[in-house]
């Protein structure tokens, strides 16, 4: 296949979007995109009817293979597993223009929920719901009949139905997070009760590399106790910023002159329902 620089620039954002959404990893997605283009260079162009369909099929199938081979490693992972945060600014080398920019299917909450799906379910849900591929295109990509793809999508949507009410309004969510920060700093319990679900869950991902809770923290009182405990022991140079992470506002935390962690949120019906504290240094943007 004759892949030109224009083809590379045109299709790379879409392929990265598929890889990142499928795997929840920036590095793995980038590696698979490069492997896909390298394979494309070796294919006789006469055998390819549609470059886009071919490239999407290769990257999707490579992601499916990766998910199956990574299952054991994921099971051995220490503590909760959070997707790698995608900081949509130049500090981590990722330019927002380098990926498909649809908000749907990109939040940390959505990507984490994808972990509950089988690989084929993940692929169909992503291609149909987030990237708006037709059923005929999806059937070609994953090599299944259209009818089967429809059934797979229906099953996948049922399994993650609770995420459908997620708020993706960036400014509204940013305002809510500002209120959360102010209430937390001033320890205004009534305000915190208004902003956070009583059944909130915090997933703390240290990956065994740094100290973190090895089980999800459940309930408002337990989550606040953990957060208050963390903030009592921070160094003097501790500071944080609200930044664009996965197209949603998140709290980016700095300590000891370096990026320490990223706190992302699942906001539903104007309340924080889940928090994702990613501290594993392997998952944080390059400092």
TrEMBL record:
Key words, A-Z: Coiled coil
Keyword RNA-binding set for record: no
Tree of life domain: Bacteria
Residue ranges of domain RNA polymerase sigma-70 region in the record: 8-71
Family matches, as Gene3D superfamilies: 1.10.1740.10, Winged helix-like DNA-binding domain superfamily/Winged helix DNA-binding domain (1.10.10.10)
Residue ranges constituting the RNA polymerase sigma factor 70 region 4 type domain according to the UniProt record: 109-160
Pfam families, sorted: Sigma70_r2, Sigma70_r4_2
InterPro entries found in the cross-reference section: ECF_Sigma-70_Domain, NTF2-like_dom_sf, RNA_pol_sigma-70_dom, RNA_pol_sigma-70_ECF, RNA_pol_sigma70_r2, RNA_pol_sigma70_r4_t2, RNA_pol_sigma_r2, RNA_pol_sigma_r3/r4-like
Coiled-coil ranges from the UniProt annotation: 146-173
Record has RNA-binding as a keyword: no
Subunit-level organization: Interacts transiently with the RNA polymerase catalytic core formed by RpoA, RpoB, RpoC and RpoZ (2 alpha, 1 beta, 1 beta' and 1 omega subunit) to form the RNA polymerase holoenzyme that can initiate transcription.
PANTHER family, alphabetized: ECF RNA POLYMERASE SIGMA FACTOR SIGJ (PTHR30173:SF36), SIGMA 19 FACTOR (PTHR30173)
Name of the protein this chain belongs to: RNA polymerase sigma-70 factor (ECF subfamily)
Lineage: Bacteria, Bacillati, Bacillota, Bacilli, Bacillales
